[in-house]
Amino acid sequence: MTSTLQSASDLPDLAGRTVIVTGATGGIGLATARALATANARVVLAVRDAEKGRRVASAMPGRTEVRALDLADLASVRRFAEAWEGPIEVLVNNAGVSVPTRRLTKDGFELQLGTNHLGPFALTNLLLPQVTGRVVSLASQVERMGRLDFDDLQMERRAYKESTAYAASKLADLLFIVELQRRLTAAGSAVTAVAAHPGLVATDMTGGSTGLAQLVTRAFAQSPDDGALPVLLAAIGDVPGGSMTGPEHLVHMRGGAEVIGTSKQAKDPALAARLWTVSEQLTGVRFPL
């Protein structure tokens, strides 16, 4: 395996490996799923809209299947996990949201925290006994601006701001990977956990930006296929557990993929452990190993 990745065509033959990709009907998730399917992996598209998922999967090469999963609904997460049989080589927690107004998941969580962190947290721990290789979660360098207010995680008392909620959820994603790796190592598991920062990518999520952000996106954003490279490296590359991959160029915003640095707070073991405990309490799901 490689420690960098320049193109999806550099992936090894993944025949016989099963990979789950959440949110695989568009953007980085679709590009990731397509690249893995092209490399002969069995790719399971875990998506909210199964009909759309089947349309997307029908245009992919190789062996694909579609299963319904709504990360904003813990009952849906549990149904997905309970129905799963067989080993999982790689679980890619790709699905995520960013919304301009405060909304709630079906379980009453703030939507960004619930979809971007708590749903994947529950899914990963429920499937973990069947994971044989790697857990990958999409994070972001925006974690450097994230803050976790444990007295108001759901932003019930603070004024809601989309960028604040998003940064907090991405910090949570990275802390989740760090604590998951610590627990896997302590349990003697061969599974590794890696985060991926896709860089600045032109997707439906970034398409709604305005003003200066819109100009920057138009000028510098890369394609979802290029944004998928850090995810693919995290999934199959020779990279350390608990690390984060990201683009090589333009301050880790474009081109290729390599292991990149994270903020001091993202490495804080006490913060990661506290978030894990709170996440277990909120979801009712615990580390199974």
From TrEMBL:
Ketoreductase domain sequence ranges: 17-204
Pfam families associated with the record: adh_short
Signal recorded as keyword: no
UniProt-recorded Gene Ontology molecular function terms: oxidoreductase activity
InterPro entries cross-referenced by the UniProt entry: KR_dom (IPR057326), NAD(P)-bd_dom_sf (IPR036291), Sc_DH/Rdtase_CS (IPR020904), SDR_fam (IPR002347)
Annotated keywords: Oxidoreductase
Signal sequence region: none
Similarity-based family: Belongs to the short-chain dehydrogenases/reductases (SDR) family.
Protein name: SDR family NAD(P)-dependent oxidoreductase
